[in-house]
Amino acid sequence: MNSSFLTFSDVEPGEIAGLIESAIAIKSGNHGTPLTGKSAVLLFEKPSLRTKLSFWIGVEKLGGRPVYFSPEEVGLGKREPVSDASKVISRMADIAIIRTFSQSVLDEFAEAGDIPVVNALSDHEHPCQAFADIQTIHEHLGSLAGARVAFIGDGNNVARSLAFAVAGSGGHLVVASPEGYELDTASLNAANDYGSELGGTATQVRSPAEAVAEADIVYTDVWASMGQEEEASARMEAFAGYQVNPDLMAQAPAGAKFMHDMPAHPGEEVSEGMLEHPSSIAFDQAENRLWAQAALVQAIASQ
């Protein structure tokens, strides 16, 4: 894989299975300490529970020292140019893990510095989440090959990374979104190209019922992400009918599992109690952020 992990496709499709196996091995306690004597800087322009907790503990498990900067402390491109911050951090730390609003910040930071950079979330992709997702699917289905995943909701950064992750693993992602909120055609085409070797696909439909009809996994995300607060009321109206609830799960095949990257907004994209529904594997999915990210960082640090 590339020295930095800015988008999911920085990992070759043929490397995905090995990284999932590595994540499962680390989860079982089988891992080295490739970060011994090294520091990982966590630069967060957006607050987070799962991302901070999982990276912090993951870096420590690999023998490293996490150094966290909160949204108030960062100011990339505001308090000082992104390139200056990158050059300074590159002289003191060994890896940068960045959670930011703009993908361009990640790209500029990686270009200016000379240490690996990990995308812990941007407006364009959430590739670490996608790795945790496919690890979780692998654990519950036994394989991603031929797996059918329905994503109900906004064609956002989570959906985009999931399209590459599922298609690149030989699975089939169907995204159901209202008009105007679809996953863009360029991303769908790129995900299909990425998955072509293993026969994976990513497609877009309008109807949630159509998306879940053959699904092994039903996945959703919030309708309005951080930074989209002004759009919340319009999105509530547009996404009416896109809630994942027991009625929608009943339209999926028996045994279908429910996933959500969290935090969830009960009463909006999910009905009350869906995270605890018998089909839910959302908390397995949350835990796997730790193990998937540790596997990614281990692979980067071992190059």
Any chance you could write out the topology, listing elements then pairs?
Blueprint: H1 13-27, E1 39-44, H2 50-61, E2 65-69, H3 71-74, H4 82-92, E3 95-99, H5 103-112, E4 117-121, H6 127-141, E5 148-152, H7 157-168, E6 172-176, H8 185-195, E7 201-205, H9 208-212, E8 217-220, H10 232-238, H11 246-249, E9 257-260, H12 282-301
Parallel strand pairs: 1-2, 1-3, 3-4, 5-6, 5-8, 6-7, 8-9
Helix pairs in contact: 1-6, 1-12, 2-12, 4-5, 6-7, 6-12, 7-8
CATH topology call of the largest domain: Rossmann fold
The CATH superfamily of the largest domain is Aspartate/ornithine carbamoyltransferase
> What gap, in angstroms, lies between the N and C termini?
9 Å
Q: SSE string, helix = H, strand = E?
A: HEHEHHEHEHEHEHEHEHHEH
| Main sheet summary | 5 strands, parallel
Poorly predicted runs = none
Question: How confident is the prediction overall: mean pLDDT?
Answer: 96
At the first level of CATH, what is the class of the largest domain?
A: Alpha Beta
Over all CA atoms, what is the radius of gyration? 19 Å
